[in-house]
Amino acid sequence: MALTKEDLQAIAVLLQNTTEPLQNAITGMQKDITGMQKDIAGMQKDIASMQKDIANMQKDIASMQKDITDMQKDITDVKLHLENITDRNISLLAENHGHLIDKLNQAAKVSDKSCLEEIRVNILTEKVEKLEKEIEELKRKTA
């Protein structure tokens, strides 16, 4: 069976009618693929940016961990200083303060005794003066 010119033209029209929608569909898919490629490229840029941010955060965290370690060391040093030096010095001051209070109390006792002796001397002085006056009066009366 031989195809005639009209048959070939009909087949060509049919093929043309089916290839155009296919080409349009392929063109649409190519546009969609191009759009998806652009989206993927954008996501890749975003991921790269996030990776940089994560790397920076890791550096910051490492720096903070070093700072925290340094602060812990400083706190330990301060605690040791307080325990070994400051507390010891306070104890020494308290002991010496106790000795000073004891000495002050002893001095107060001596001072109290001194005051008592002064009062006694004053009383005796008054009595001697009184006796002297009485002796003088007796001398005047007998004279």
Element pattern in H and E = H
| Approximate strand percentage | under 5%
Q: DSSP helix count?
A: 1
Low-confidence stretches: none
Structural class: mainly alpha
Cα-based radius of gyration, to the nearest Å: 59 Å
Shape designation? rod-shaped
How is the biggest beta sheet arranged?
Answer: none
Helical residue percent? over 70%
Number of strands: 0
Structure characterization notes:
By secondary structure, the protein is mostly helical. It has one helix at residues 5-142. It is built from 1 helix and no strands. The longest helix is centred in the middle third of the chain and has 138 residues, at 5-142. It is rod-shaped and about 195 Å long. The mean pLDDT is 88.
Secondary structure blueprint with pairings:
Layout: H1 5-142
Which structural traits does this protein have?
single chain, 143 residues, mainly alpha, 97% helix
Brief summary of the model shown:
The chain has 143 residues and is mainly alpha-helical.
